[in-house]
What does this fold into?
Amino acid sequence: MVHPKKKPLAYPSVAGEPPPAELLLEIGTEELPYQFIPPALRALGDSAAQLLKEYRLSHGAVRALGTPRRLVLVIASLASRQTVTVKETMGPSKSHSFDTAGQPTKAAIGFAGSQSVAVKDLEIRQTPKGEYVFAVKREPGYPTHKLLSDILPSLIEQLSFPKSMRWNESGMRFARPVRWLLALYGGKVVKFQVGGVQADDRTWGHRFLAFDKSKTNQWVRVNDFMSYVKVLERHGVIPDQEQRRTMILSQLTRLTHSVRGDLHRDDDLLEQAIYTVEYPHAILGTFDPQYLTLPKAILMSAMKEHQGFFSVMRREGSLLPKFISVTNMKLEDMRLIREGNERVLVARLADAKFFFEEDRRIKLAERVEKLKGVIFHQKVGTQHQRTNRIVLLSTKFAGMLGGDQLITTCRRAAELSKADLLTGIVGEFPSLQGEMGGEYARHDGESEAVSLAIAEQYLPRAMEGELPKTLEGKILSLADRVDTIVAFFHVGVVPTGSEDPFGLRRHASAVVRILVEGNLWLNLSEAVRHAKELVQAQGLSAVPHSKGSSEPLDFIAERLRHYGRTVHGLRDDVMESVLKLATKRPFVLSDLLSRMKALQAITARPEFDPLMVGFKRAHRLVQKEKWSRDVINPELVQHPVEKELINVLSEVEPRVQTMMAKSEYAKALEELVRLKPVIDQFFVGVLVNADNPALRENRLSMLYKVDVLFRQFADFSHIVVQGT
Amino acid sequence: MTFQELILSLHRYWANQGCVLHQPYDLEMGAGTFHPATFLRALGPEPWGAAYPQPCRRPTDGRYGENPNRLQHYYQYQVVLKPSPDNIQSLYLGSLAHLGINPKQHDIRFIQDDWESPTLGAWGLGWEVRLDGMEITQFTYFQEIGGIELNPITVELTYGTERIAMYLQEVDSVFDLAWSDTIAYGDIHHETEVQCSKYNFEEADISMLTATFQAFESECKRLLARGLTVPAYDYCIKTSHLFNLLDARGAISVAERTEYIARVRALARQCAENYLSERQTQGFPLLKPQGQSRSKPKGKALVKS
It folds into this structure.
């Protein structure tokens, strides 16, 4: 079949046609929020490539660079003219299109109309199927320079940000005001206007810094990317984020080594530093060592969260009374700037010290009652209600995973788990929740196990973050998250599409990782059932689920699929076949994952797909007849292949049982694979639908036994096999 | 530079940019944004430029005069410009230079800080401006006021006068600031901090405040119904301060908090709507060419946009 196709044709070289040239676009802005810049640069590059493709403009490498004050796009070798295309669409056959007199038929007229070409322009072509009518459309190539005046404004207007604003009467929306536009194609200005700004060939240097004698805050003319980069560097701007990254990293290393310390590597801080400066210049500051008596986490948060400072560690891991600030200024004398930064930090640390000392005057246990005044979520109740649920749930989980000692520890940790939300330090540094709870619990004289569990309850903090190390910490983290998911589902707050305001997916992923990577034998369906009972018992008003939304258990299973896919490269059909049967059994994630991995391993074997063909045939017959009897009458066994099947089944069955019980899934699958020849022979040797009903029933029972045996492991009917 | 010189200096600078030198509003408020010269004037199409210091009261921030950086009463210096000039960042940096802060000798940064006032039904995007790591100014492009989308956009600059003065005078405690050559900030305000902290946290009469809140809320509504928007807005400002006092006193639970905020916001919204429609009825007087304006500004025109 000949498909309609696009056939790009090289444009016949016209004398004087300019060669491909470089496109340079700079969107000059007021200071953009640093988190917005990397995604905006990705979007800028991607939509540029997309737009140029739509406009049929061939091009070389696409680069996107940026600082807080500029988003830059550079496209190498952009063709000077659109590719001419000829689009040919096949229509009806010649005999259908023209009558014997050679006049066009209704079919031809209709086709020409649908393709918006004149009937007389239809062409007849020879195809392997005979002669057919074709509509041929030529789209001419316009010069790039003209097109860019349309392309660039829409490129800029297409950029979207998590939050955008208006600033002038143009009504344009952008993350921050756009103040200048530089647009050059082949050294010539591309004329267009966006947000009330006219594009030209001028850029602006650093606000305050220039390595050309005091020529700060002035515009400069450029003609291509090379000159742009050079001019900007002289004017105190390093437009390439990767170059800034390298500069910052080497400055950080130099400064930490100068005090024989080690840098605390923090990727968030590094990103923040890269995208909040146009010219990075790191400085080393000092604070009064008296503050080193504060817990490390507090000091690091005070430096990081308020000021964006890096901490410096001693080799053995404790902090040095130093910090590094990446400034946007380079002066010969940085004293003034350094002292300013030091003063601000000391005020922060003094505040933190005050809070830390005040906090320890009141025990966590005494704070619990006050959680009644802290709303977790309007529909999900107060932190006090949550605490009560988490206490009961952790106790339950501890009972499922261990003995009395574990139960006692988990209960105590859960009781105190949310009390630190009322402390001054957590009020000041919300990210220290949990960690401070652990610190204060220890101070209150709680056991080390209780303190650690409280400290670890929010781990993992990010999708791939560190897991709790202690079993108690894992249990508390699980209880908290299972409760959160179940409670939000109960009141009808369920993630949809990209909307997940309470991070339920992240919680579900954490549940998966803790259970799987911690190899915890916890029946999740029972866990979820308990959580539901607790939520109901507190009388939270239930909202019936809208159609199509899932149950908490399915929701977590979905994250297990995601985990299997991304971390272990598992096939969807393999996971599906294991999960399909799992709901009827204890839902133990680590166990399900072992099964999936074993199953995926065996699918690589050459005899596996043929085995599946045989199994599916057996399964379909059993299903079709709704057969559920497994009593076989030996007297009705006629053929040797039947006998063979029964023999092998009786051997394999108990072995599979034993191996499954010991979680030796690979071995169990090996046993199932042994059935392949006998199943194949069976289908070759006998007809299941025999005329004699007794024979037929006996054979169905044999197949039923095969089906049941396989289904102990997984629902193999979901396995996708080549050629079925 | 003394504290009073700092304010004088800002006055001079912004007056030269064509701003009306307004005076502080004579009611307790949590921020200069509550001043009618900002909250009401930001509404509608009329051009506007004003600068003024505003004493602010934040009862929960009181520390009995014991913390060198925290006060329950302090001074903001507020500048509002409508429409927001294209060169507003340069104008702002010019004001710092005017105070003797040479931007070429410091690390001045515009760090994202989006502003929202749930009680005023207002929000905007902008930055906190940091001088060598210290926050000295809030810089906001208002997008909505009283729930009304703004057009043209008003830009608001809020200087933290004490912070800047502490930096310039190189003192570590706000109370040590030289207000004038002979009087310290502490001479004027330390005792007020001690007494007001005690009042805010310990003595404020909760039932009196609650009853007053209700009375003022009713009065605001009554005045709104009678077309007296300006006095109605005064009562709206008063309810907001009463809410802050109740909050500092720990008299408001989390659930009630949301409700109180919603009540103040409802008043603020209605004031904004009424103000806008009144100005419309009056034909937006400040839109008239300058020659016809009753108060004819002398000297430089409003900031060029």
In short: The longest strand of chain B covers residues 134-145. Chain B touches chain A at residues 67-69, 83-84, 86, 89-90, 93, 103-112, 114, 124-125, 127, 131-134, 141, 143, 151-153, 167, 172, 253-255, 305 (CB under 8 Å). Chain B has two domains: 3-201, 204-286.
